[in-house]
């Protein structure tokens, strides 16, 4: 304490001599340069932004056909490698993870065992989240009980934050499309109403 007390008056005088308020005021009043200006119009360049908002129209086919998922989860197993992919309904591969990648292969003892397929599920889930994909459709649930590898793969995806089921698309209510005078916009229908309708259909 004897060393700290003599320093207090010196510290008070040094703080009193600092004029920080004029500096802050001058920095606040300075004119903004070109780098500080913000564009009031924001353009989202993500080509699948409307799909993420569940507002994009997609091919529905005939009313007797099964619904078409937007993102398919595909698992390919060969004698030497394991590959997990998320395929868009247009046929393009959006996200993939495979033991053929050297960064993954060098960390694995085997490229075909249960440890490899579980890590492929974790990596694929992380890459999906980084790409903005949180829901995918998969038909691997049927073989989950009979295959330990498929069960570990789906479990790693679920733990990683990926839902193995897609939500329904928010669409218009009017079924008489020939009598449209002004087409209903999808964003005029709230998500809560669509979820209630889905619950009623599932209950029936």
UniProtKB/TrEMBL annotation:
<dbReference type="GO" id="GO:1990904">
    <property type="term" value="C:ribonucleoprotein complex"/>
</dbReference>
<dbReference type="Pfam" id="PF00861">
    <property type="entry name" value="Ribosomal_L18p"/>
</dbReference>
<dbReference type="GO" id="GO:0005743">
    <property type="term" value="C:mitochondrial inner membrane"/>
</dbReference>
<dbReference type="InterPro" id="IPR005484">
    <property type="entry name" value="Ribosomal_uL18_bac/plant/anim"/>
</dbReference>
<keyword id="KW-0496">Mitochondrion</keyword>
<dbReference type="GO" id="GO:0003735">
    <property type="term" value="F:structural constituent of ribosome"/>
</dbReference>
<dbReference type="GO" id="GO:0005840">
    <property type="term" value="C:ribosome"/>
</dbReference>
<dbReference type="GO" id="GO:0006412">
    <property type="term" value="P:translation"/>
</dbReference>
<keyword id="KW-0687">Ribonucleoprotein</keyword>
<dbReference type="InterPro" id="IPR036967">
    <property type="entry name" value="Ribosomal_uS11_sf"/>
</dbReference>
<dbReference type="GO" id="GO:0008097">
    <property type="term" value="F:5S rRNA binding"/>
</dbReference>
<dbReference type="InterPro" id="IPR057268">
    <property type="entry name" value="Ribosomal_L18"/>
</dbReference>
<protein>
    <recommendedName>
        <fullName>Large ribosomal subunit protein uL18m</fullName>
    </recommendedName>
</protein>
<comment type="similarity">
    <text>Belongs to the universal ribosomal protein uL18 family.</text>
</comment>
<keyword id="KW-0689">Ribosomal protein</keyword>
């Amino acid at each position: 304490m004897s060393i700290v007390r003599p320093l207090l008056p010196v510290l008070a005088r040094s703080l009193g001599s600092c004029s920080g308020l004029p500096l802050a005021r001058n920095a606040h009043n300075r004119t903004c340069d070109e780098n500080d200006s913000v564009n009031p119009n924001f353009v989202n360049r993500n080509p699948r932004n409307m799909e993420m908002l569940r507002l994009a129209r997609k091919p529905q086919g005939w009313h007797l056909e099964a619904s078409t998922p937007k993102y398919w989860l595909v698992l390919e197993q060969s004698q030497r490698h394991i590959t997990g992919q998320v395929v868009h309904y247009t046929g393009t591969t959006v996200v993939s993870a495979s033991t053929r990648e050297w960064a993954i292969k060098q960390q694995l003892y085997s490229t075909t065992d249960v440890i490899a397929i579980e890590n492929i599920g974790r990596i694929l889930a992380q890459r999906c989240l980084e790409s903005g994909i949180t829901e995918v459709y998969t038909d691997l649930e049927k073989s989950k009980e009979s295959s330990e590898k498929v069960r570990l793969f789906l479990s790693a995806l679920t733990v990683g934050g990926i839902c193995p089921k897609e939500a329904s698309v928010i669409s218009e209510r009017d079924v008489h499309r020939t009598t449209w005078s002004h087409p209903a916009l999808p964003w005029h229908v709230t998500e809560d109403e669509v979820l209630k309708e889905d619950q009623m259909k599932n209950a029936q």
